[in-house]
Amino acid sequence: MNRRKFLLLSLLLQLAPTLWLCRDFVFEGRYLLSGEALDMSLPWARNLDRIGWDVSEALWDRNSFCGIPFLANPAARTFYPPDLVFRLLTPLSPEASFSTLIFSHFLLLGFGGVLWARTFVRNLWSVNLAGWVFILNGYVVSRVGLADPNFLFAITWIPWILACLARLDQPRARFGLFLVGTCEVLAGRPDITFFTTYLVAAQLLVVWLPRLFRQAGRARAIGHFVKLALVALAVGLATAVQTLPTAEIQNHALNRSGESNYEFAVTDSLTPALFLATFFPRSLGDPNGVNPDPRTGGEGNFWGQGAGFHEIYFYMGHGILLLAVAGAFAGRTRMRYFWSAVALLAVALSMGRHLPFYRLVLEFVPGWDRFRVPPRVLVITLPAFAYLAAYGFETLVSRARCLPRTLRAVQFAAGFWGILIVGALLSWAFAGRWLETKFVGVGLSEARALESSLRAFWSAIFSAGGCGLAAALLFLVSASRPAWRNMRWALLALALGDLVWTNGSFLRSISAGDLAREFPKDPLIERYKAEMADGRLMILGDTQYFDRRPAHPWLFPGRVLDYGVEMVNGYGPFLLADHVNAFLRIDPTEKSYNGGLLLYYFNLDKRDPGLFGLFQVSAVLSSDRPVKGLQVLAVETYSHPVFGETRVFLSRNPSFYPRAFLFRPAPGQTPAPEGSLGKVTVKAVGATRVEIEVEAKLDCSLALLETHFRGWNCRVNQTRAPIEKLAGTFRSVRVPPGASQVIFEYQPTPFRIGVLLAPFGLLLGFVSAFPTKSRTSQAHSILA
Predict the structure, then answer these.
(1) What is the count of structural domains for the chain?
(2) With 0-12 CB in 10 A as exposed, 13-18 as middle and 19+ as buried, what is 15?
(3) Residue 148 CA to chain centroid, in angstroms?
(4) Angle separating helix axes 240-250 and 215-238, nearest 10 degrees
(5) How far apart are alpha carbons 529 and 509 in whole angstroms?
(6) pLDDT tens for residues 25-36?
């Protein structure tokens, strides 16, 4: 089969699982939007869609946690090329763009796996098996379905990067590496980019380092390194417009991990018990289940404790695992040792706090302390399993007889799964007798709940063990008996069927009508907009448990708010430390602070009135009871199928401060408006510019209750004036007596530098496409 037909057929083979995963979008026109996408990604996308070509509006987000550099938030994907195409050049709505991006990226992910696999296997089905592993693995589908699609967008380019690296001698491959590397950095997941960088560096070290000690290969290895360094430099320059603002805010953000905040760094570490959820799917409950949870009555359940399901789930299928074991023992080559070590090391590192030497990793591995949630390192198991499984199936297809060590490894796996099934049968009998004695005299509903959970657990053990044992037997039969070699196709069908059945229903979809109901015109919010839009809204954290808005769990930016309401507290990838520290002083007697992620206030009974005023809180949403000292403006009753009904109060703060006012600084005192000092008029408020007119009777200070950050400058009567921090987070500037014009402008230096560097990166990327003297090398000569 010629190359063109091979690739076309492979594209169609990768399209099949993509259509299955995205079937609701392709065949029913429903939007592929998870709950987390509805809470954060979609409002960000709608904001950028509204902005359009006006980049200045994207620099600063006034509605986000009282103002942060919006561009510095990589999860917004402000400059991600596919996003730019849909946002600026098509009439598609943000929600339709999301669904189209998800569909196209699944297809690109699988086809990238095909292109990479062609560098180490040749059979059509072995090559496509690698692509199917990339598409159908639990790591990707659970995150797209239950969390943020940015994971998919970033992971998509990993096999493309590996494929281009294997062909680095070819000019087109170098230019392709520049393009996919740029997309990888701008896709919105710095943690995925970080792990991918370490993976690539380790692979190149394993391949190129030995060549440096051989006279024949030294010059070639150095040449490859120079070419790769130029491409990496081009990617760094081209993406500086995004990475430099992100790097700047890292130095001022509270929710960064590291040895100084170890607990935050090990958030959602994968406990050994939670491996059951991956190796035996549905053993700890099923988040996609249609049957009600026996304890809460809600649809879908996962009763493993300590982490969100999508953070710990990476099921690859027992058939794929069996083929990966066969591939690992199919020969003694550096790359098979390398990918086997990658898979084992990633699984170990995912345990985080449960790994004895994880503190040393945070301390000595550069950059590792910048990221939380250790299980996210499991992303590097995707190419590892794809490589080993493809090579394992290749041994069945291309070799007349498998190596004895390969057969012994598969026999060991078959024995393990056989023992597992027998042990499960014996344990099930014991569990039944234990259950009978445990619930003597106990309520019937509790007994049934535990019985249902135990039945689901053992059913998952039997199912997984049976699948693994069947895969091992099919492998042994097809490898050892020439007359039964066609059983390898049954093995392939079993492996793929297991993945499709187990991982094929994670993607969430929502109809256009349901989406409209997700953003209702809530009566409390509409009342707030009508009467108190000049201030900011504070939502107390105990309103998080109700499925109607405004009580939604993340508090930022809020589905019902949809960038229409400024909020005081919130959630985001970055929380400015100065702002958070000031915020926590409003009511120091009663607060819950979750490692820099979520800010909750459960009451404001002993609040600091001065700080409360500086945050310009004009209204508070609270559940069950109103806030003392505030005027109740409206009450609504919200319901939840599990938590029942509750009342949510909208309370007015009649004494909130204006956005700008004059005051006289006094050491140790919280500034407050002093009307006798003169008059302040806010003429214009934009994302990056605030214009104020002042009539001051004497020399004093002007307060602007907006978050201060590097890059904000001020001119008083066309003269630069230094900005001083007010209460640690807001802005103030000295003004002279008489009439003055005060203009605050956001002119971030990192963004300006990035704009200047990006053209040089693009130019260098295009230069990398020009041919060099050596053009005859094969792909295997680089990453063999």
Answers:
(1) 4
(2) middle
(3) 5
(4) 80
(5) 30
(6) 999 999 998 877
Please tell me whether residues 537 and 479 are part of one structural domain: no
Q: What single-letter amino acid sits at 79?
A: F
Are 326 and 409 spatial neighbours (Cβ–Cβ below 8 Å)? yes
Q: Write down which residue in 652, 675, 692 finishes a domain.
A: 652
Strand order in 730-735's β-sheet? Answer: 660-663, 700-704, 730-735, 724-726
Q: What are the angstrom distances between the C-alpha of 615 and each of 652, 691, 706?
A: 14, 20, 9
401 located within any domain = yes
Domain match, 37 and 129 both: yes
pLDDT tens string 173-229: 999 999 999 999 999 899 999 999 999 999 988 888 887 777 777 787 788 888 899
For residue 603, list its beta bridge partners: none
Residues 6+ positions from 233 with CB-CB distance below 8 Å: 761, 764
Same domain flag for 497 and 539: no
Tokens 């969100």 identify what position?
A: 308
Any domain includes 4: no
4's tokens: 């063109």
393 & 410 share domain: yes
Query: How do residues 698-714 score in pLDDT, each as one tens digit?
Result: 999 999 999 899 999 99
The CA radius of gyration of the chain, in Å to the nearest whole number, is 29
**b/e code 208-233 from CB counts within 10 Å (16+ = b):** beebeeeeeeeebbebbeebbebbeb
Asked whether the CA dihedral 202, 311, 184, 29 is positive or negative, the reply is positive
| Euclidean distance between CA atoms 231 and 182, whole angstroms | 10
Same domain, 585 and 679: no
Encoded tokens for 220: 């070639």
- Same domain, residue pair 101 and 17: yes
Look up residue 151 and give its amino acid: F
**Are 487 and 532 part of one and the same domain?**
no
For residues 487 and 424, state if they share a domain.
Answer: yes
Tokens of 81: 């090329």
Residues 57-91: b if buried by 16+ CB within 10 A, e if exposed:
bbbbbbbbbbbbbbbbbbbbbbbbebbeebbeeee
Angle between helices 157-166 and 190-212 (to 10 degrees): 20
**Under 8 Å CB-to-CB from 205, ≥6 apart: which residues?**
none
- Which residue range forms the structural domain that includes residue 226? 13-251
Q: What angle do CA 7, 10, 15 make, to 5 degrees?
A: 130
The sign of the dihedral angle between the CA atoms of 659, 664, 670, 672 is: negative
Which of these, 686, 681, 703, 684, lies nearest to 746 by C-alpha position? Answer: 686
Domain assignment present for 682 = yes
- The rounded distance, in Å, linking the Cα atoms of 227 and 521 is 56
Q: What is the pLDDT of residue 498?
A: 92
Q: How many helices (H) and strands (E) does the chain have?
A: 30, 15
